[in-house]
């Protein structure tokens, strides 16, 4: 099979980068397999893409919103029909097992249906006026060109959270997908184009952050930037955007706690912890990375977790029996192994895992064992910093107050969870956990697209993509006053006797 070459998609055409450079992406489970050749784009490519999006905008913004929504609904059907093929592409490019890759596509289908439906809602508000014969309302309007920088860990789902609401609101788009997993963005856009999206409304520029991402963030014709990735890069994006007063929506790191109280159903906890910590090889921003457990049940629970973790089937995600795939690339592998080493040095006890698997079937991929540390203290770096790998830190506590204090004592605040059968404890946790997403009796992963998604503190900057709030990221409010009295009516504040 010849290696597929992916060119940038600009103004409805596939074009090579003006840089003349390309890069290769290989399967993280088997480095002998090339996934594709991609454009190593630069500022000139970004300028071309923005120009195409700018040319398409005046037409697209005038297409009635229900009609824009119909294109998304049609795209949902196409995604559904191609789910199997797109899942394989997704597994090959970033490593997650096929069943999880299918979930990534399903999330995009859900978003296409939900955002498509917004074409017929997109509610504003009307209010009574203070004055007679006067009507007032507020409407949503598109903003212009939205620049998107998306991550590799949910290459189809996260691109869909950003792109589909932006489109239904009437914006045009330039997207720079994560360089490790760009194929899924092409697949999503392929469906939109076949569903009737006009040329130039979505443009794809592949490549790396400094050479392709930064020119997009700095482009004066791009008033909105939506970024998902690390807090370190997000801070830079925010700073650059602020200089031009851009709207910047940031979705960044997490250090998500799962609290287990002494009355919890431990069978349920076990399943939740294994899925939350080791699903997607721990490479979700919502992954469970801290297990905060009541001291009285800690030993029993940890024993069961270790037993299950050591039996997880690790392998190539294309093998249907695989439960946990590889890490996405060599840098991530190095980073995860460094954190495991750090945990040892900090005095935590390595209860299972910790090894780089590099022999036999693992020889050509980036595989690491599911890893559990006990005797972790909240001050340790492995308990505070985002690892983005299958590493779980177990912290023992004496009760709910301490559990909540430990859970909140980190810089991040994406998702958090508590397992308990005590309704009072559950409600207290719901109110007091410093997180954008809270789960009761479920792990920290598994958010649905029709509720706001995002976090507090160093995880975000106040925006929520997905859910009804997604429209606020990608539209501008306009308040409209209609005076049908035929006289100059001064507003009440200007009319004080
Ligand atoms: C992420 O954590 O990186 O909530 C995205 C979930 C998925 C998306 C997660 N719907 O688990």
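^ structure tokens above, recovered residues below v
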């Amino acid at each position: 099979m010849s290696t597929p070459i992916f060119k940038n998609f600009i103004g409805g055409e596939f074009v090579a980068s003006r840089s003349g450079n390309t890069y290769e992406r290989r399967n993280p489970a088997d480095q002998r397999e090339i996934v594709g050749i991609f454009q190593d784009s630069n500022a000139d490519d970004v300028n071309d893409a923005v120009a195409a999006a700018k040319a398409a905008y005046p037409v697209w913004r005038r297409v009635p919103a229900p009609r824009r929504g119909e294109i998304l609904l049609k795209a949902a059907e196409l995604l559904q029909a191609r789910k199997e093929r797109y899942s394989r592409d997704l597994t090959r490019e970033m490593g997650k097992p096929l069943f999880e890759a299918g979930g990534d596509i399903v999330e995009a289908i859900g978003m296409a249906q939900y955002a498509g439906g917004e074409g017929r809602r997109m509610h504003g508000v009307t209010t009574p006026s203070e004055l007679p014969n006067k009507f007032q309302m507020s409407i949503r309007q598109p903003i212009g060109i939205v620049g998107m920088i998306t991550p590799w860990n949910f290459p189809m789902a996260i691109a869909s959270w950003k792109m589909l609401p932006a489109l239904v609101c009437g914006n045009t788009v330039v997207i720079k997908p994560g360089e490790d997993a760009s194929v899924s963005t092409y697949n999503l856009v392929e469906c939109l184009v076949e569903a009737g999206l006009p040329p130039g409304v979505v443009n794809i520029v592949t490549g790396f952050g400094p050479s392709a991402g930064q020119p997009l963030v700095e482009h004066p014709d791009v008033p909105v930037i939506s970024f998902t990735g690390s807090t370190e890069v997000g801070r830079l994006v925010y700073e650059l955007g602020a200089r031009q007063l851009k709207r910047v929506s940031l979705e960044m790191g997490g250090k998500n706690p799962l609290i287990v109280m002494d009355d919890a159903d431990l069978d349920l906890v076990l399943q939740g912890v294994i899925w939350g910590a080791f699903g997607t090889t721990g490479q979700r921003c919502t992954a469970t990375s801290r297990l905060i457990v009541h001291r009285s049940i800690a030993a029993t629970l940890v024993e069961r977790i270790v037993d299950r973790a050591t039996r997880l089937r690790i392998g190539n995600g294309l093998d249907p029996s695989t439960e946990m795939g590889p890490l996405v690339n060599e840098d991530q592998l190095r980073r995860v192994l460094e954190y495991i080493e750090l945990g040892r040095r900090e005095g935590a006890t390595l209860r299972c895992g910790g090894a780089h698997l590099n022999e036999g079937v693992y020889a050509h991929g980036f595989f690491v064992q599911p890893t559990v540390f006990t005797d972790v203290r909240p001050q340790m770096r492995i308990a505070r910093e985002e690892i983005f790998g299958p590493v779980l830190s177990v912290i023992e506590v004496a009760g709910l107050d301490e559990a909540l204090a430990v859970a909140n004592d980190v810089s991040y605040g994406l998702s958090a969870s508590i397992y308990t059968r005590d309704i009072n404890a559950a409600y207290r946790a719901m109110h007091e956990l410093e997180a954008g997403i809270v789960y009761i009796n479920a792990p920290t992963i598994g958010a649905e697209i029709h509720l706001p998604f995002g976090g507090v503190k160093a995880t975000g900057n106040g925006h929520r993509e997905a859910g009804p709030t997604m429209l606020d990221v990608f539209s501008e409010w306009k308040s409209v006053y209609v005076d049908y009295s035929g006289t100059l009516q001064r507003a009440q504040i200007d009319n004080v006797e």
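The first strand starts at residue 5 and ends at 6.
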